[in-house]
Design goal:
- By secondary structure, the chain is mainly alpha-helical.
- A hairpin with a 5-residue loop joins β1 and β2.
C-alpha cells in the first residue's frame, strides 16, 4: 500500500479503497493502473490465505475483520497523503485519529492474534477491552516512531506529533519530545495494568501478546527508526532466531544481544 500513497495518484488510492470495499466482487470495479492491480492482488490473496489459516484455529470465518483492517489502513493512508498534497496542517487530535491507523499496526499485529491459539469471538474482538489495549499499543508505537522520524518528515513536508507539539512550546523540540514521551509512558502503564489484571474478556495469552508487541515497538525505536535502519533490527531478529544462548556472568542463559536492548 505504501507505494500507492508515496507515489500514487488520488485516483489510484480511491480505486484501491473501492476494490477493498468490494473484495470478492472486485472484478466489477476494475483496475485503473497496473500498480493498483499488483498491490490489490497481493493484499487479496495474502489476506484470504491468512483467513483460511485463521478459520481453522478460530472455528469461524474472520475474513471480514481482516478486510476491515485493510480498508481502515487504506483510508487513513489516503487522508495522510491528501494532507501532504494540499499542505494541510492538522490539529494534534486530527493527526492522531488518522496516523494511528495509517501506521499499519492493525493489519500487522491484530491478524496474527487469530493464529496463536485462544478463540477470539466476535464479541471479544469488538469489546472495549480489546479496543483499548490495541489503542494503547498503537499510540505507543505511533509516537515512538514520531520521536525518531520528526526531522526526516519535516524535510519531506510532512508532520508528526513532535512537530505539532513544538508549535505549542514556542518551537522547542525538546519540550515537545518530553511531552510525547510522557504520553507514551502513560499508555504503556495503562496497557500493563490491563495485561496483568484478573478477569476480562480478552484471553490472557492474547493480552500478553499485546504487551509483547509494545516491547517490540520500544526495541525498534529505541535509538532510531528500526523500519528504515534495518541493520540493528535484523541483528536482533537473527540473535533471537538463530544464535545459540550463552551463559552470562550470573550463570543465567542469555541471548547474545546488547544488554540495553532488553531493558524495555
Amino acid at each position: 500500500m505504501t507505494c500507492l500513497t508515496s507515489g500514487g495518484s488520488m485516483e489510484e488510492m480511491d480505486n484501491f479503497i473501492t476494490l477493498i470495499d468490494k473484495w470478492d466482487a472486485h472484478e466489477e470495479v476494475g483496475f485503473c493502473s497496473q500498480s493498483v492491480e499488483i498491490v490489490f492482488r497481493a493484499v487479496y490473496h495474502t489476506s484470504n490465505l491468512l483467513g483460511v489459516k485463521a478459520a481453522a484455529v478460530q472455528n469461524r470465518s474472520v475474513i471480514h475483520h481482516i478486510v476491515e483492517l485493510g480498508a481502515g489502513l487504506a483510508r487513513a493512508m489516503r487522508a495522510e497523503a491528501e494532507w501532504t498534497m494540499s499542505g494541510h496542517l492538522p490539529s494534534l487530535e486530527e493527526y492522531m485519529e488518522v496516523t494511528v491507523p495509517s501506521f499499519g499496526l492493525g493489519p500487522i499485529a491484530l491478524k496474527p492474534l487469530y493464529l496463536i491459539g485462544p478463540e477470539l469471538t466476535e464479541e471479544v474482538v469488538r469489546s472495549l477491552e480489546y479496543h483499548e489495549m490495541f489503542r494503547h499499543v498503537a499510540t505507543c508505537t505511533r509516537r515512538l516512531n514520531d520521536l525518531q522520524t520528526y526531522d526526516m518528515e519535516e524535510e519531506q513536508g510532512k508532520t508528526n506529533s513532535v512537530l505539532l507539539l513544538a508549535r505549542c512550546h514556542g518551537g522547542t523540540i525538546e519540550a515537545a519530545k518530553a511531552e510525547v514521551w510522557s504520553t507514551i509512558m502513560a499508555s504503556r502503564r495503562e496497557l500493563l495494568r490491563m495485561v496483568v489484571r484478573d478477569g476480562g474478556a480478552v484471553p490472557r495469552p492474547v493480552r500478553q501478546e499485546f504487551w509483547n508487541i509494545c516491547k517490540i515497538a520500544h526495541l525498534l525505536y529505541k535509538d532510531k527508526d528500526g523500519f528504515s535502519s534495518t541493520r540493528e533490527t535484523i541483528h536482533a531478529a537473527n540473535a533471537v532466531m538463530h544464535e545459540p544462548l550463552s551463559w552470562g556472568e550470573e550463570g543465567r542463559s542469555t541471548p547474545r544481544l546488547p544488554p540495553h536492548q532488553y531493558k524495555l
